[in-house]
Amino acid sequence: MATELATGLAERGHTVHVVVSSPLRRNLPRSERLHVYEVSVPQHPALVYPPYGLALASRLVQVANDHGLDVVHVHYAIPHAASAYLAHQILGPAAPRIVTTLHGSDVTQIGSDPHYLPTTRFAVSRSNGVTVPSEYLKAEAYARLDLPAGLPIEVIPNFVDTARFVPAVRRDRAHFDSLFDPADRGAPVLFHVSSFRPVKRVTDLAEVLARVRRNVRARLVVVGDGPDRASLLERAEALGVTRSLVLLGARPEFVSHLQHADAFLFPSENESFGVAALEALSCGVPVLAYRVGGIPEVVTDEVGRLIEPYDPGAMAARTLEVISSPDLRATLGRAARARAEERFRRDAAIDRYDTHYRRVLERTPSEAV
Asked: What is the 8-class DSSP label of residue 345?
């Protein structure tokens, strides 16, 4: 989201300086208005843990002094909001305004952890502007971080590049045939993308696949990697669906596969928004997800199916409903693409961020949060 936003702002004539902790997974387009800086965190024998937060604050000070920044927009509160506040204090009256975007676990898990809560609450409440991607996360931020009731938080939904995540000209299950057992050639294909963390409940994928295959010889393609990879494979083996499951690993480019899928499985325990689900919708792929967190603000029964948590059997039943009816699958797919285009386009989101920055800059220092 941050790099897509930076690219869009640069396209509109803003000069954007992107400060990152490690090399970007995707190269940004070449532009005289778009610059990237990495944060260097030197190792010292006397320090057990490298002080990334302090190094980031120093880097922000340097970039602000060198380029006269108007706004520092930090994504994910931990530790970025605190680093931005420290840089603001160092820079004094000439400091840029701070906008903080909360993304999810920086509120619901890490940020509200008692070990980090006082710092997170302070840094977020001292931001000049605060945004979140969903109404759900807005409510959670006030409640879990105990933020002041007068602190304005603006909901700006995450977005998708609808020119990149686009339906296939002709959806073709044969696209996947080389990945699977020839006996399953032409069978429906389910899809999933995630970081394989416990909150993603990836073992539910094996449960759903096994139940679906009692009626239809479906196949499952999974993109991503993470700590629960072994658990997913172990559960798939126990259920006898290993040969119907393909793990492609973590890869930034997977649109050419996703756009040919029949349905997207999204069994997360919680999501503040659900970018992976939105990318599927933009490709015209119906999404089946648990009714949790901010997912209902993205996925509706007009574009997929919402299932009460956490019932793999119910998800399997609704998956069968979708993939067994070509007409229903096509109707949901068309509605999915339309919803992505109408509500979650990148340009519309950049408009809202642009307006948010200008509103923050128009406030006098005494009016700033």
From this structure: B
Please name the amino acid found at residue 231: S
Measured N-to-C along each axis, helices 117-125 and 77-91 cross at an angle, to the nearest 10 degrees, of 50
Asked whether 190 and 212 are in contact (CB, 8 A), the reply is yes
177, 315, 176: which is closest to 254 by C-alpha? 176
Cβ proximity of 205 and 315 under 8 Å: no
Find, among 219, 141, 147, 221, the residue nearest to 187 by Cα.
Answer: 219
Q: What is the pLDDT of residues 311-326, one digit of tens each?
A: 999 999 999 999 999 9
Q: Helical H runs in the chain? A: 2-11, 52-67, 77-91, 105-108, 117-125, 135-144, 203-212, 229-239, 255-258, 275-282, 312-323, 326-343, 346-362
66 Cβ contact list (under 8 Å, min separation 6): none
Tokens of 58: 């120093």
Residue 317 region by backbone torsions, left for phi larger than 0, else alpha for psi between -120 and 50, else beta: alpha
Q: Pull the structure tokens for residue 188.
A: 């429906």
Give the angle 360-361-367 at the CA atoms, nearest 5°: 65
Q: For residue 320, which of 310, 333, 311, 329 has the smallest C-alpha distance? A: 329
Q: How many CA atoms lie within 13 A of 210 on its CB side?
A: 17
pLDDT digits 0-9 by tens, 214-256: 999 999 999 999 999 999 999 999 999 999 999 999 998 999 9
Helix (H, G, I), strand (E, B) or coil at 335: helix
Report d(CA 259, CA 162) in Å as an integer.
12
- What value, to the nearest 5°, has the Cα angle with vertex 39 and ends 34 and 45? 170
Task: Report which secondary-structure segment, H or E, holds 162.
Answer: none
**319 contacts 212 by C-beta, under 8 angstroms:** yes
pTM value > 0.90: yes
Report the alpha-carbon distance of residue 109 to residue 106 in Å, rounded: 6
> Is 225 within 8 Å of 250 (Cβ atoms)?
yes
Instruction: Name the residue with tokens 């869009």.
Output: 8
